[in-house]
Amino acid sequence: MKLVVFLFFAAILNIGFFEELKVPKRYKINLDLPPEERWNEVIDDHIDAIPAVVNETKSYVPEALQKPLFWLAEKISVLFAEDYVREMKAIANRTGLPFGEIAGLNILYDITSFNRHIFAPFACTSIIAEDSKGRIYHGRNLDYDMGDLLRNVTIIADFTQNGTLLFSTPTFALYVGVLTAQKPNAYAVSLNARYSGGYVDNILMEIITMFKNPVSFDLRTTLETKHNYADAIEHLSRVHFVAPSYLIVSGTKSGQGVVITRNRWSTADIYGLNTAKGRWFLIETNFDRWKTQGDDRRQMAKKFLTELKRDNLNSKTLFTVLGKAPINNNLTIFSTVMSAAMPDTLYQTTAIRIK
């Protein structure tokens, strides 16, 4: 009887008792190839799963808005970087899906992130922590509402050029932008959703920016063109975005870790590590740090890290923190711990969480 009660409460509290961890498959995205060829192996391996993901995505968009939304995504794609458009068109051609739907899914964050969001929620938790030897770890849970489907298309993509690894990203098979990534020996970055302002603000910024900087596309461009921590932060603090966001950036040296709270036009706040003041970790979920939190993820992460203590921090113990409820919850697709100074950490810790 006691075992039955334990199993019951374990399921309710989502403590991961029934959870399975699966290692994503790694793929090389060779930027020396024509854009039409870069994702072929990825698409072929997920050809049966991708249509279901796109179809489910459509169900989160009000039916009356689906046609105009995907039509708009196709039309404004001429404003995106040419390589990204050609990659998305190749994915559409190889899967047989409409290009507008592939493009719409790739910019879904930018057209749904506002205060009264009516689409499926983006969540996520990002943690930057520095151990007692000055080593930086960057933990990340990506949460989203289409878990069963997205887990089937979760991969690790290694972007290469001229035979050199530019960056690695735990991502999804039909997604050409970046939400989570590590540039070896330089920096790591993760995007957390920030819901701020009204939809009219998104529309105005779409007009002002000519939709040239969807957040996930700009993160990829940053990783391709900004080669150190300082340059990445400077760019991500200044660029104009359609949608607000939290950009969490970690480096390779002691003290290199910030949460950039982004408005559409500018930066609202930059908050960094400061071990001299006892601030050896930063936690971001989906709420401004200076406001009341909307759930318990940050509070519980702080509790777990405080109990862990800085001397006991490493990639395994941070991964354990990411696995605790409510940081790990029914929406969590995957977890990873990155460390730009120790690049193999990403491959050793990234795991799909099968509920």
From TrEMBL:
Signal peptide segment: 1-18
Top-level taxonomic group: Eukaryota
Annotated ranges, domain Choloylglycine hydrolase/NAAA C-terminal: 124-292
Keywords for the protein's UniProt record, in alphabetical order: Glycoprotein, Hydrolase, Lipid metabolism, Signal, Zymogen
EC number assigned by the record: 3.5.1.60
Domain Acid ceramidase N-terminal: 24-75
Pfam families found in the cross-reference section: CBAH, NAAA-beta
Active-site residues per Swiss-Prot or TrEMBL entry: 124 (nucleophile)
Protein name: N-acylethanolamine-hydrolyzing acid amidase
Natural source organism: Panagrolaimus superbus
Taxonomic path: Eukaryota, Metazoa, Ecdysozoa, Nematoda, Chromadorea
